[in-house]
């Protein structure tokens, strides 16, 4: 079974599935999830599982619904994203997997093809024995690294056939992650009146007004810093971009900034927007500065510790003799995107997020083994 998981992982790493992340300069033969999705469909069909490839334009996801061998108490979705980040500047051959000293190297080895390899190896063990105790939806979704288009494609495909909960595989070093922060981007725009810089009193300087707004946001950031979550720390607000003006001798009529706001579970986009509006109002800036956009880039994850997704995963880890630990992490995942769609869940997988997206990405073989044993226990245990 372990051998099978590593064999599958080698196959998957050798199939490029790069998310172009908005770029158009990448070779066509490495971009898109379609080759990997087609490979998985054939592998699942060989197990008599009716898998389908959905999506378009090479940005494909794979979905398969598997009924339990007997009466099932619930339906669990396992989602393992198919895309990897690009491969520029890698120190290793990204698509030639190499096993060195207990580590399997290659792009996607850790983030997150090892999770899918462990799942398929576990299914090869469980399905022929007829011991699947939960209804299962196997998902390999496209585009986790950018816009999570795959999650929406998958849920549209499933319609009303929603799982009770989802397990998203990501490198958590086999800890059961049930909470993470989310990301909102706030764009502020200041509008002024242009005039010659020799008579600035005739105009309204958009850069000056926007600078006052930046100070207002910084004060808000200080307030947020006092509301720390014991596991995740405080929500944060950081201004990352500011631009405006045309020339030194023109009073600028436009300026804008973009701030990055990290949310704690339970905070909403509306709350974030209201806080910024209040901050602008406190400094009487509304006349010249407005919120041009306030968008949720990555949702939070906030599954209660006593939810069956958490409890059952901890139990499965424990039953295979692995340390059973709950955790909160700083990075966002598709589990948060599923939560927005009313599907609660957890994140667990082999490898460390510190190895993800790196120039010498690898995953520890013993963690892939642990994930395979874990899946067998979760899917066939009670
Ligand atoms: Zn990932």
Quick summary:
The protein is an alpha/beta fold. It has helices spanning 2-13, 34-45, 109-129, 149-158, 206-224, 269-282, 308-319, 334-340, 365-380; strands at 51-56, 59-66, 75-79, 98-100, 103-105, 135-140, 165-168, 176-180, 182-191, 236-244, 254-263, 289-298, 301-302, 326-329, 345-347, 362-364.
Write up this protein:
- This protein is α/β, with parallel strands linked by helices and 382 residues long.
- It folds into two domains: 2-180 and 300-380, Zn peptidases (Aminopeptidase, 3-Layer(aba) Sandwich); 182-298, Alpha-Beta Plaits.
- Helices cover 32% and strands 24% of the residues.
- It has nine helices and 16 strands.
- It has helices at 2-13, 34-45, 109-129, 149-158, 206-224, 269-282, 308-319, 334-340, 365-380; strands spanning 51-56, 59-66, 75-79, 98-100, 103-105, 135-140, 165-168, 176-180, 182-191, 236-244, 254-263, 289-298, 301-302, 326-329, 345-347, 362-364.
- Strands 1-2-6-3-7-15 form a six-stranded mixed β-sheet, with helices on both faces. A four-stranded antiparallel β-sheet has the order 10-11-9-12. A three-stranded antiparallel β-sheet has the order 4-5-16.
- Helix 5 (206-224) packs across helix 6 (269-282).
- The radius of gyration is 24 Å and the shape is elongated.
- The chain starts with a helix and ends with a helix.
- The chain binds zinc ion (ZN).
- Zinc ion binds at residues 81, 111-112, 144, 170.
